[in-house]
């Protein structure tokens, strides 16, 4: 036993592992100042209906680090979760998104748009989350029905009773819910029926190989009919090709998000896109058929 723990003790000083720890600690302390120094930015990715009209957008967080440049949320969100920093960061995301909704509300061309915000498990599970959202919505004086919260299956199933309760309170306020990355988790049909959801978002991993992989196509068809039978909207994420869109339309999934329409872009780009003339709308309706 003594020998084993001795080995473990030596392993603790493994330089490679120490380097990983140092990078992590640096990232963490950088994450702390990133908010104060305004290194975070929201990017926006449009959501489009079958006629090619923009119906809303998803807000996606970007960290532009002075030395390291662009850091993916896939890298820093888990760290923010571990350290609890996701709470102030998530609040900033909600405030920035609601501020944008308020601006859109002033313009008849954009007043109908919804904005989806990703909320992670720790953020949703903070005891005063409902109060925080209520206060942000009130302060920005926005129509809460334009705000959509994206939760993953694992966030919801982590503590299904407490989560459902919070979702119901926020739903009463008018806020909509989408289940993100749907199909990758373990939702049972019994839960799905009870949750106050508005939308299922088909995970992009199933959309990707839709045209070549028969089992992915089967899963996508099943998710669409499940969602529609439960009275939910169904949106597909990661739509990159005309063939994928055609398959989705044929199977009654009529809302799309993906590079076929636009990558996530800064607000200036989005506003330019929304301001676009008829020809731009036409582009959205019939993107280049290069992939066919
Ligand atoms: P997600 O919510 O599932 O977001 C979709 C991801 O797919 C985004 O990656 C988006 O850029 C990417 N994507 C969209 N269309 C396509 C496509 O056609 N092809 C491909 N290959 N990818 C596409 P991103 O922005 O890197 O975000 C990754 C994840 O980070 C998000 O996944 C979400 O889970 C998390 N995230 C992003 N912003 C926030 C945030 O503000 N708060 C929290 N808690 N999580 C966030
Ligand atoms: Mg999302
Ligand atoms: Mg997703
Ligand atoms: Mg995802």
UniProtKB/TrEMBL annotation:
Q: Give the shown range, full length included.
A: 748 to 1039 of 1039
Protein name from the UniProt record: EAL domain-containing protein
Provide the protein's localization.
Answer: Cell membrane
Q: Which residue intervals define the domain EAL in the entry?
A: 24-278
| Protein's organism | Undibacterium danionis
Superkingdom: Bacteria
